[in-house]
Amino acid sequence: xxxxxxxxxxxxxxxxxxxxxxxxxxxxxxxxxxxxxxxxxxxxxxxxxxxxxxxxxxxxxxxxxxxxxxxxxxxxxxxxxxxxxxxxxxxxxxxxxxxxxxxxxxxxxxxxxxxx
Length: 116
Hints:
globular, about 120 residues, about 60% helix, about 10% strand, 7 helices, 4 strands, two-stranded parallel sheet
């Protein structure tokens, strides 16, 4: 996926929320690998009042707190798609796709869709 992002000039967006989740990871080797990937972002979203306000709206729809913050950051960054392997988040996002300002997809399925 990273090769395709470079070849196709995709921007990777990082966020303060991603950094917090990485810091919470207990396994040091995995944490190091994920940290390296996360550092490849071209832009970075900091949680501010607008992100917090949007996250509160998403909480009311039933999103979990960190999921709501991730989505709010992705929306603030005007991303085309937020990638996650969390099937529950993807399912809930599809249910509320009319309210979300971004798409939320599984990385492998999305890349397969985009490169075909």
